Amino acid sequence: MQVLTVSQLNEQIKSLLESHFLEVYVEGEVSRPTYHTSGHLYFSLKDEKSVIRCVMFRSDLRSVPFRVEEGQKLILKGRIGIYTPRGEYQLYAKELHPAGAGSLQIAFEQLKKKLEAKGYFAKQRPIPDFVKTIAIVTSATGAALQDMLRIIDKRWPLVKVYIVNSLVQGKEAAQDLAHSIEIADSLGADVMIVGRGGGSIEDLWCFNEEIVAEAIYKAKTPVVSAVGHEIDYVISDFVADLRAPTPSAAIERILPDKEEILLYLDTLMDRMHKRMQSIVGLKEQELRHIQQSMAQLSPHRRLELYRQQILNLSQGFSQALRISIQTKEQEIPRLLQALHNSLAMQLQAKTNELILLQQKMEMAYRAKELPKGSAQVVKNGKPVMLSDLKIGDEVQLQDLHYRVGVKVESKDVL
């Protein structure tokens, strides 16, 4: 009986498996993927019943355009190998392909999601309304550049164009394209166009690289992404400030049409002509108004007004004087009559006062003749007898020193 060591057994198993499973294709679901600091990828593939450990070395991993994530369904091309120190067998992957969507599409969606989370799609710089300089980053030998230059010459030949030659296809294109974007950004142009003509997804893939997206994001110049045809979408379309469906459309969107500008200028000239006519008409009216005002406010006009005012005042004064004299002449008889009436009234008043004084003297004289302690009866300023009084009469009892008002309440005959 041959007795083997553990190492010998593992080596025999290793030789047997590796010789029979030099190339296998295995489909399964990714579990616990780990990107090691060494650059290698460690993961497992599983189905409903089994699981197998896998490893993909850094040199082979470079060809995988997407990132391996938990739950992805992949088709692995590789070989079976044994790790003899632990007696464990595993799959050594050479190629990885998505079991459903294409690998490039998965890589596109992964990068798009990553950049959106970093805010690369939120930065939008305004495109100037009137572009004076354009920096075009594309292949100097491509048909897309000739199309853009032809449309520039047709629409707005006054614009200054900088052409920054760049690779737009191939493995080295992404690095070269990012460097060209940095150069174009340093030229101080009003806007930058980054693009190329149509092609397959592989041909356009450099515009889906993160290094290109980062260069567009960091650029200070507003960027227009013009890649492929209208149906083609690349990462640069989302990071750029404006997406144009084609390179030709990019020129049409940022440059005005000289024919439209000329028509617009004709319209402005017509409006300006009409406006100038209106302004001149208004100014003529203002001038006539000023002339009339100056004529009315001129020194000769003012002297004439003052002369007329003096004449009017003189005539008014003369007329007022005549009226005053006539009025005074007419007022003399009236004044004499009023004076006569006033003197007559004063004379009558003095006469009445004299009569009153005479009555008072007479009453005082009579009161003096009354016995001491008696008084005489006075009604309406005249002494009366008691027999002349009536019930309700108001009279005064008067002596030399006092006068008392009384009212007759009753009258009896003694």
Describe the structure.
By secondary structure, the chain is α/β, with parallel strands linked by helices. The chain folds into four domains: 6-100, OB fold (Dihydrolipoamide Acetyltransferase, E2P) (Beta Barrel), CATH 2.40.50; 120-256, 3-Layer(aba) Sandwich (Rossmann fold); 258-313; 365-407, no CATH class. The protein is 47% helix and 21% strand. It contains ten helices and 14 strands. It has helices spanning 6-20, 58-61, 103-117, 143-155, 173-185, 210-218, 235-239, 247-254, 258-297, 299-369; strands at 24-35, 41-46, 51-56, 73-83, 88-98, 133-138, 160-165, 191-196, 223-227, 242-243, 376-379, 382-383, 394-398, 403-407. The strands form three sheets. The chain has a five-stranded mixed barrel. A five-stranded parallel beta sheet has the order 7-6-8-9-10, sandwiched between helices. Strands 12-11-13-14 form a four-stranded antiparallel beta sheet, covered by helices on one side. Strand 11 (376-379) and strand 12 form a beta hairpin. Helix 5 runs parallel beside helix 6. The longest helix is centred in the C-terminal third of the chain and has 71 residues, at 299-369. The protein is elongated. The termini are far apart. The mean pLDDT is 84.
